[in-house]
Design goal:
Elements: H1 2-10, H2 12-19, E1 22-24, E2 35-39, H3 46-53, E3 58-63, H4 71-83, E4 86-89, H5 96-109, E5 113-116, E6 128-129, H6 134-142, E7 146-152, H7 154-157, E8 171-174, H8 190-208, E9 212-213, H9 217-239
Parallel strand pairs: 1-8, 2-5, 2-7, 3-4, 3-5, 6-9
Antiparallel strand pairs: 7-8
Helix pairs in contact: 2-3, 5-6, 6-8
């Protein structure tokens, strides 16, 4: 109930007014039945823009930190994300990936739409990064199509560190569904999972026009953060 209230009364109209989304390829999203929508992830507002324009409800796998904040604010944030169709996933530890896959398969098993960002995190610089193979594992195990999606302009509207988005026109592009039934029964083959994931990311790249980096975003960001910290420490030592 609250999902519909957010979509049609509270949040959806505001998002449409702020971003005036131009939507392409919406006909590629099936009217019914299970499917995965796999897209790039450029901004915090991506979580809400796609559900606002889709005719069907879509459930996203979201990082658990959105649901575990302290105090009243944390509880309200968690309630909001759950009401908006987000499922918390713990991204730490060795079992994190399998937990995400289990949650996603549960959504698909109910015949619903599952939204996932194969990069695993928001792009910190607007480029498209290597996809993690969880999306392929879910597509093959559930035997469902994958609809590639590209958000265009949301990085500029709300880049990392900006608390509130700036009004600007954005584009949302959906590509033709990708059918991986030819790989049926091979969901545990690492080479197949990598090939399927790369095919999905290639389709997203064709829609988004981003620069592609054949590395995981989290690794690149961690390296850049480390270099910045080392540079600051070196600057402090020179100052002394």
């Amino acid at each position: 109930m609250f999902y519909q209230l957010l979509k049609y009364v509270l949040l959806g109209p505001l998002l449409r007014l702020m971003f005036r989304p131009r939507v392409e390829g919406l006909e590629h999203v099936p009217e019914e039945g299970a499917a995965i929508v796999a897209g790039n992830h450029l901004s915090f507002c991506d979580h809400f823009l796609m559900p606002a324009i889709l005719r069907r409800r879509i459930t996203f796998l979201a990082k658990a930190e959105y649901f575990t904040g302290p105090g009243l604010r944390g509880r309200l944030t968690a309630a909001f994300f759950r009401s908006a169709g987000q499922i918390p996933v713990d991204r730490s530890g060795r079992e994190a990936g399998q937990a995400a896959i289990r949650e996603g398969l549960g959504v698909l098993g109910r015949g619903e739409l599952l939204g996932i960002y194969p990069e695993g995190t928001r792009s910190h610089d607007g480029r498209l990064y290597k996809g993690k193979v969880g999306v392929a594992a879910m597509a093959l195990r559930a035997g469902v199509p994958v609809i590639p999606c590209a958000m265009i302009g949301t990085f500029e509207a709300q880049p990392p560190g900006q608390k509130f988005p700036s009004p600007r026109r954005i584009r949302i592009r959906f590509g033709e569904p990708l059918d991986f039934s030819r790989h049926g029964g091979l969901a545990d083959e690492k080479a197949v999972l990598r090939a399927v994931t790369d095919e999905i990311m290639t389709a997203v790249l064709a829609l988004s026009g981003q620069e592609y980096v054949d590395r995981y975003a989290a690794e690149v960001k961690a390296e850049e953060d480390k270099r910045r910290k080392e540079s600051r420490r070196a600057g402090v030592r020179r100052g002394n």
